[in-house]
Amino acid sequence: MELRQSDDGSARTHAIRAEQAYVTGLYERLDTVRQQTRAALRAADAAGGRSGYSALMDREARSNEQARRLSQLSGVENGLCFGRIDHRGDRDGDAVDTLYIGRIGLRDESHETILVDWRAPAARPFYAATPVSPGDLVRRRHLHTRDRVVTGIDDEVFDLDGLSDTDRRSLVGEAALLAALRRGRTGRMNDIVATIQSEQDRVIRSRLQGVLVVQGGPGTGKTVAALHRAAYLLYTHRDTLKRRGVLVVGPNPTFLRYIGRVLPSLGESDVVLSTVGELYPGVRATASDPVATALVKGSDSMVGLVRAAVADRQRVPSSSGMSVSANSGSGDEGASGGTRDLEIEVDDMTLRVDHADCLGIRDRTRSLRLPHNVARKFFVTEMLRLLARNQAEQLDPMLDPAEPAYYDETDLDYMGAALWQQEPVRRGLDELWPLLTPQRLLETLYADDAALARVGAEAGLTESEWKGLSRPLGSPRTVGDVPLLDEAAELLGEDDAEERARRRRVERDRADAERYAQGVLEFTGLFEDPMMGASALAERHDDADRPRSTAERAEADRTWAYGHVIVDEAQELSAMAWRMVMRRIPTRSLTVVGDIAQTGSPAGARSWSSMLAPYAHGRLHEERLLVNYRTPAQIMAVAADVLAEVAPDQQPPESVRDDGDPPRAVRVGAEGSDGTTLAEALPRLVEEELTAIGEGRLVVIVPDARHTEIAGLLPDAAADATPDALDSPSTVLTTTRSKGLEFDSVIVVEPGEILEQSPQGGHDLYVALTRATRRLTVIHEALLPDMLGRISRQAGPPLGGPCVEAPGPRLST
Ligand SMILES: Nc1ncnc2c1ncn2[C@@H]1O[C@H](COP(=O)(O)OP(=O)(O)OP(=O)(O)O)[C@@H](O)[C@H]1O
């Protein structure tokens, strides 16, 4: 496209006008495509033709595809086109070849590309070109738009000689990146599709296979790059990933809500977002364990513990009246009591099975190496046979057991089946080899100290370790329990007879409903209407088993194998959590995003290779992000001092921004202040900071133990870590809950206490200090830790008021 300077305006104005004309054309085309898709959706919904369940499924699939396309087209309204690249070249004799880059690809009526999808290979130079290696790019232009209006342009010129005189005059310099970074925060992460940097682009376009680790300090764009990678992979490997889906694992529901808008804005909504605490279908765990317990539950000795817990429920009768645990399988019955025969009272008769026979059946059942619930069928059948034989002997003592007819297996099976209907028989056998859910297994284990001691010893736990697991029945489930549930589910397996029966029932009911609907249509005379079929009518009244999207099916299925998994804040995952995640991705196609320097969980990672090598089978590839796009340099310098103390081997990232306000320290309630208490000073400080940031977001980050107290001082701030907490202008969070988030203003309360609160306290403090995009204040009664010396030095000498502060808004007294 040739830009011409008009007589009545600057070259820039003219360039914007020209871009506006192009962008208007793109929106017109978008409107047309939307109309066409809407019509296709209506047609798919109304399609008649074959009736029956499979035809219904086909129709649903077509309709879902059109609906997905329509939602993609609606998601790209804002910032449809955000850039253009001019290649050196002479296609059609032009001096430059121009491509426009946007959120989706568009073609005009004659199938010429008018907008290139940002994920397409042709768009790559827009992100990858640098002044050092520009390839054949002459210029990269960012287009800024509001609604459908072009409000500005930014150019980066790689080859001035390649531009015409007019083009050169129209160059504008405002850096698109910095403009994006300076925007006030809204509590929701935005996509960065217009300003992806080349190191991030490498991450985004890395190949699908293998384990990609993205290590980077705070604010380096790990999360946002990982989300763009999800969109890129879905675009590039649509066939594979459409069937298997993509899972994004984040640290908590607030974080998931924070990032929740990015993928839809990139036209991808069919992705499962989950925390570790929600990864087991039907479970929503948010509570956490004390540090020592979390450490034990996260360690891989839990593999042995869960295995021993299952074996502990495969019992033989004992003389102490309770069933004897028999973990060893050797026949040595352990400490719980001596041996006893199985005795069950049925119809005035005591049925008996020898202890040795019970032991033999149990060991044979175990040797099948089937999951516990699946193997139960064998155990029960064998036990029933022996009970039936005993019953036959007692009913007719004259029968000679040596007589062949006596041992007719069919008779015994028949008698056994009748015995299975008797409550005492069921109860007796259930006690020996119960049908177990993972939840029941763990809850009853935690509530039974004797079982914990047995099972803990078997798994090699110390007394204090297994005692840390003890808790009463009905206690809230913790996030650390979820990987153990998953582990237990693997060992227990499912007896899927019920599910198969359910499906048969659903199909039968659907056929009934269709027959009934056909009758209704005939009765009402509507059967001649081509828009109305019996299956469609039946379906209107029953959509319980309607075909669901890949994401919906994946989310509901514990054994679903995803096509790709992205784990964010991955340093927090314990060894047990990794086992759970890896079960969901047998192909090991993963993106692992995190920062070892920010590990706060006692059971989290200290090194990527030690955590991931066992799974990666040599296919571990690491990319590093080194530039901090969030935290201005002055604030980052304070955080870097903390990092140097707590993890001297880790490098802090370099800030791209130096435009924040100087960080400050405010001392209250002690020497150096006028005695103002924290309770008086904090609400005023919050108010001042909110005024200073205008429309943005503020967080007060507190030591774990003081969350309730400090939330009580700030009634207007959101304090529960609910997903919508970030909709409020101010929020009170612990460091754990603030992971991955960012705020215009951050107030850290009593950093010394955060430092001391756990062995990982220094890392927590580093996380807290790096959440700020503009302003950081530390408020404290106790002396500041030495590692925060810079903030007090920056603050200068005490002013004699309640606070010691650097330039910037002062706390009014
Ligand atoms: N290329 C970019 N263009 C515009 N904004 C960017 C870019 N890269 C990162 N950002 C912004 O920088 C901020 C930090 O990004 P992000 O949260 O992804 O960092 P992170 O590495 O995950 O941080 P942390 O480890 O602290 O969670 C976000 O606001 C993000 O939108």
Automatic annotation (TrEMBL):
PROSITE patterns: UVRD_HELICASE_ATP_BIND. GO terms for molecular function: 3'-5' DNA helicase activity; ATP binding; DNA binding; hydrolase activity. One of its GO terms (biological process) is recombinational repair. Signal peptide: none annotated. ATP binds at residues 216-223. InterPro entries: DNA_helicase_UvrD/REP, P-loop_NTPase, UvrD-like_ATP-bd, UvrD-like_helicase_C. Residues 314-339, 648-673, 794-813 are annotated as: Disordered. Residues 655-664 have a biased composition (Basic and acidic residues). Residues 195-632 form the UvrD-like helicase ATP-binding domain. One of its GO terms (cellular component) is cytosol. Residues 318-330 have a biased composition (Low complexity). Keywords: ATP-binding, Helicase, Hydrolase, Nucleotide-binding. Gene3D superfamilies: P-loop containing nucleotide triphosphate hydrolases. PANTHER family: DNA 3'-5' HELICASE, UVRD / RECB / PCRA DNA HELICASE FAMILY MEMBER. This is Helicase. It comes from Nocardiopsis gilva YIM 90087.
